[in-house]
Structures are given as structure tokens and as C-alpha cells.
């Protein structure tokens, strides 16, 4: 794994909410919610700079929302769905439902 | 009403998540979730400065999480529960469940 990943019981509600409170990061979570691991270069628009991506991966990872692991020259990202569902039942489902019904500010960041 | 309150259909998911992504504001929402209007001086610890409170009321209000209306020399606060439940079904319930199961960082701000 890359960087710090909190253990499940160290995941804090306020950190998860802050991490999700950004349209670019919601766009990431929407892609990862489909399941599996995704190369970091494929989950957001190609227009977004590498430094911006790196910042957002760190916020999501530090909050406990995603796993990030190296794979060759790329990183693979996946959603910590099981951990989040166990810690905060219903939260991720409610957020993903909100993303589906109000995608306007998120779609601009789609790959 | 005081200041800007977005209409229900203008409430944005990312703004609600950001507003809730703070232990002091989660402490406010926990109190208001009991229902009714609460004088602004009664929902958080007396230790918190007026300027800090004013900042947090604005973040919650601008995001569409609370109503804030004047009453004499005070303001009355209430949760926009119906609007939030309509816009983002299950979100507030999941957050309040998380607050109940992991109150550590929130209790310090209780009145």
C-alpha cells in the first residue's frame, strides 16, 4: 500500500464526510463504487493535473475511503466499501444515491 | 430568516457533506435532530467564541442544513430535516447513526 491507510476502527465520520464533500472526489467514488481496482489515471478526466490528483488521492486515502496500492508505474485505487459499510451503515449508499440524482457538478470530472 | 438559505432544490450534496464534515457542526446537528427550534446560545459548549459560532452557523445555513431565524436578541436554529430527507434520502439518518456510534470527537463540544 502507499502512504497512510487508517485501520477500520480509526476511520472517523468527520474525515469521511469531508473527503466526500468535493465534486471531484465524489466523481472518483462513483467510479470506484462499480467495484474492483482501477488504475489511478483512468478514474477522472485527463484534464486534471497530476498534482491535483495526488492531493485528492491523499485526502480519500487518509480518511479511509479508498485503498491505494502501487502497480508498476501506476497506482491502483479501490473503494473501502466493506470498511465504510461496517463503520457507518447506509452512509455510502445514501451518498451514491445522491450522486445519481444530482450529478451536475460531478459529471464535468468524469473520465 | 437570517442570511442566505438555499431553496430545497439548490441544496448540493458536496456542500452538505462538507458542512457535516466537522465535529463541532456534527455536535450541532445532533442537538437539532431532537426536533424544534433551539436558541443559538444553547446548542454548543459555552467555551466556544461567538465568532467561531457565527462561522459554523453560516456554513450550516449556506449548505442548506439548518434554518436560522432571528428572535429578539438571539437566533433560533432548526434542522432542515424534511428538505434533506427529500433531497438525499437516508443521508442524515446514516450520519446521525454514525454520530451515535462514534461520539468521541463530538462530545467535547456538547453544551
TrEMBL record, chains A, B:
- Do you know which PROSITE patterns this protein is assigned to? HTH_ARSR_2
Which InterPro entries did the record assign? ArsR-like_HTH, HTH_ArsR_DNA-bd_dom, WH-like_DNA-bd_sf, WH_DNA-bd_sf
One family from Pfam that matches here is HTH_20
Task: Tell me the ranges covered by the HTH arsR-type domain, including all copies.
Answer: 5-99
Q: Which GO terms describe its molecular function?
A: DNA-binding transcription factor activity
Superkingdom assignment = Bacteria
> What name is this protein filed under?
HTH arsR-type domain-containing protein
Instruction: Name the source organism.
Output: Saccharothrix espanaensis (strain ATCC 51144 / DSM 44229 / JCM 9112 / NBRC 15066 / NRRL 15764)
Write the lineage as a comma-separated list. Bacteria, Bacillati, Actinomycetota, Actinomycetes, Pseudonocardiales
Amino acid at each position: 500500500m502507499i502512504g497512510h491507510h487508517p485501520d477500520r476502527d480509526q476511520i472517523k465520520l468527520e474525515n469521511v464526510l469531508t473527503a466526500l464533500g468535493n465534486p471531484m472526489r465524489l466523481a472518483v467514488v462513483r467510479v470506484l463504487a462499480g467495484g474492483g481496482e482501477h488504475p489511478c489515471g483512468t478514474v477522472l478526466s485527463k484534464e486534471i493535473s497530476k498534482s491535483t490528483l495526488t492531493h485528492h488521492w491523499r485526502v480519500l486515502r487518509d480518511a479511509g475511503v479508498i485503498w491505494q496500492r502501487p502497480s508498476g508505474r501506476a497506482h491502483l485505487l479501490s473503494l473501502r466499501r466493506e470498511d465504510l459499510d461496517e463503520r457507518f451503515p447506509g452512509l455510502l449508499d445514501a451518498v451514491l444515491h445522491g450522486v445519481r440524482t444530482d450529478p451536475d457538478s460531478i459529471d464535468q470530472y468524469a473520465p
